[in-house]
Design brief:
Blueprint (H helix, E strand, L loop, with lengths): L3 H4 L7 E3 L5 E3 H16 L5 E4 L4 H12 L5 E2 L5 E2 L6 H11 L13 E5 L1 H6 L18 H10 L5 E2 L15 E4 H8 L4 H9 L6 H6 L1 H9 L6
């Protein structure tokens, strides 16, 4: 049984390390590696950009974005001026691309981001992990097409495939459906509220005031459209 600390990213007892940068849930490592080999046999490179992230790492990302140390974008990928945003606008801008600490699927080790490293290097591309890089003329377009056809064969799906008013479209984000579903079932807003209240997250008052809405719209990605 998965407890609150595990889905919130406070602890994890089932991680396996792939290298110095990346860890995945033990049930996901073999399906990922099998998919990676299959992609390579078709001439497509499928490498991890981001994998497991715990609560503390997600909190650091959030706070840096809130303070303007990392860029904020709208759902079309346009750069925003952090200083001109209200607290609510800042929350929505961050949540379009980055999850609340405690609310990230990356906490589970079941979800990860991928890119075509070979293509990025060959084209000397300044990689930013944006949608245009996975569209036609982008360095990861062939990978995106390959995943469209093949990811499901290995048990993976894209939880943010379509923008519905919650999390922006993320063609790079894959989730191991069977394993992730166990974490999805135990998510609850009270546990998230408790951990956020006791954290040093920036914008805490505005977040807590809107948490019921944010939980539905972004954490569960039910959107507004």
């Amino acid at each position: 049984m998965i407890n609150d600390d595990e889905w919130l990213g406070l602890s994890h007892s089932r991680l396996l390390r792939l290298n110095e940068r990346h860890q995945l849930h033990q049930a996901v490592v073999t399906p990922f590696k099998t998919m990676q080999i299959a992609a390579r046999s078709d001439g497509v490179d499928c490498q991890l950009v981001s994998s497991y992230r715990g609560f503390t790492r997600q909190l650091t990302i959030w706070n840096r974005k809130w303070e303007g140390e990392l860029p904020l974008y709208d759902t079309q990928g346009n750069l925003l001026d952090t200083a001109e945003l209200t607290a609510d606008e800042k929350i929505d801008a961050i949540l379009s691309w980055s999850a609340l600490p405690g609310g990230s699927r990356h906490h589970w080790g079941t979800d990860f981001d991928v890119y075509d490293r070979d293509s990025v290097k060959q084209r000397d591309w300044q990689f930013e992990l944006v949608v245009s890089e996975y569209a036609k003329l982008g360095p990861c377009y062939e990978l995106a097409c390959w995943l469209n056809e093949n990811a499901g064969k290995f048990g993976f799906f894209r939880p943010f495939e379509v923008y519905t008013g919650g999390v922006a479209e993320e063609p790079w984000h894959l989730s191991h459906q069977r394993t992730a579903s166990n974490f999805e079932k135990v998510r609850n807003r009270q546990a998230l509220k408790d951990v956020l209240i006791n954290s040093d997250i920036r914008g805490k008052d505005a977040i807590i005031r809107r948490l019921d809405e944010l939980f539905e719209r972004y954490v569960l990605n039910r959107g507004t459209l």
